[in-house]
Amino acid sequence: MPTARPRHMITESDRLAEALNAAGEIWPEERDERAALLRRVIDAGIESVESAAALRRGQRLTAITAAAGALTGTWPRGWRDEMRDEWPA
User: Fold this and answer.
1) Assessment of whether the complete model's pTM goes beyond 0.90
2) How much is the CA Rg of the chain, to the nearest whole Å?
3) Which of 9, 46, 79, 86 could cross-link to 75 by cystine, CB 3.0-4.6 Å?
4) Using an 8 Å Cβ cutoff, are 38 and 20 in contact?
5) What is the rounded CA–CA span in Å between residue 63 and residue 7?
6) Where are the domains of the chain?
């Protein structure tokens, strides 16, 4: 089937074969269709990755929110002149 999308070819490793066999137990209607099972496994992996990414974004946002405003202190009057006075003219 023609497509403009990238195509990927993978070899069924022992680990992938085991995952596809397990997927066949979850989706028995596709037990004999390895390509269909592979798509199901990939979809499940995508959901897992998206969930982990969302969790990480949430953690980062929490950390940013917690740190926001922590460095909003004001400089004392005349600080620039004091700093300049420390250096030779």
Assistant:
1) no
2) 28
3) 79
4) yes
5) 39
6) 14-68
